[in-house]
Amino acid sequence: MLQAAIRVLQAQGYKITEPRKQVLEVLEGAQKPLSPYDIQSFLKQKGKYLNHVTIYRILDLFCSLNLAHKVLSIGGFVKCSLGTAEGCHRFMVCHQCGAIQEFADKELCQGEDAFTRNLGFHTKYHLSESSGLCADCFRKQFEEQKLG
Amino acid sequence: MLQAAIRVLQAQGYKITEPRKQVLEVLEGAQKPLSPYDIQSFLKQKGKYLNHVTIYRILDLFCSLNLAHKVLSIGGFVKCSLGTAEGCHRFMVCHQCGAIQEFADKELCQGEDAFTRNLGFHTKYHLSESSGLCADCFRKQFEEQKLG
DNA sequence: ATCGTTGCAAAACCTTTGCACCAAT
DNA sequence: ATTGGTGCAAAGGTTTTGCAACGAT
To which CATH superfamily is domain A85-148 assigned? Predict the structure, then answer.
């Protein structure tokens, strides 16, 4: 996984540096979107230090290479967990626990494109985030309702 | 249009103040999403002054009442141009001229919900922005290609 | 050795908070 | 008169910039 990202960097002529590997590692291990300062904190816990500017720049790079995405409804970054998928990369965001799941579906993109094309618009890419409850949180809430 | 928004405010027990009317007016007249400071600049041109904090608070209020939306891919605010529509409010964002068009479609929402439900997710609402070229900018680009 | 990367300092920018005053109802 | 709204000052947080030093190739 991490290896795949490193190969992408190398293939594009970017250097494999400690800071980049560290940010990759943190993103790999995260369950939720992380802000640049979140990432800095995580690293501090491991006894490592990165300047926040460095983290900003690394995240910019990763996003430009689709190794990471910015989840706009949260304002944090996640590693990209999809390959060169069919259709744009979408997110489900649990507003209870903050967990993220990435997915893609060609038909959803086609439906959206068809609709906007009728309005004369030519779509390059989609941004799509579904907010709600993940399976776990939904179950928990359901149990609580039975009790209460 | 502006009247409709004012009625919504009144109906909810919010006061109709000069600052609120001014922000509404600016949003009405805008073709693109505006940041709080953009709005302040627009008003300054008209010889009016609002504190930025006031603008932040007014925008918060408007968004909570669905009189305005924040366009996340741009980071600015637009007036809501839809009624209580079928399905969530979506945007087409022209990355050339910045123009915004709002739309809604029940089927798109249903398609997305169906897909995520299969993954155990329970969607509350969607965030959806399509980025690309509006009809005008597409035409212009097309003309230029013919020439070049 | 080269050139891309990082760290640092600083600045710019964005957003929020608390409180006193003002104004719409 | 009441209560919500606004302005101000200040603080806190986020993001960007320029430059010198470092390190992967």
Answer: Ferric-uptake regulator, C-terminal dimerisarion domain (3.30.1490.190)
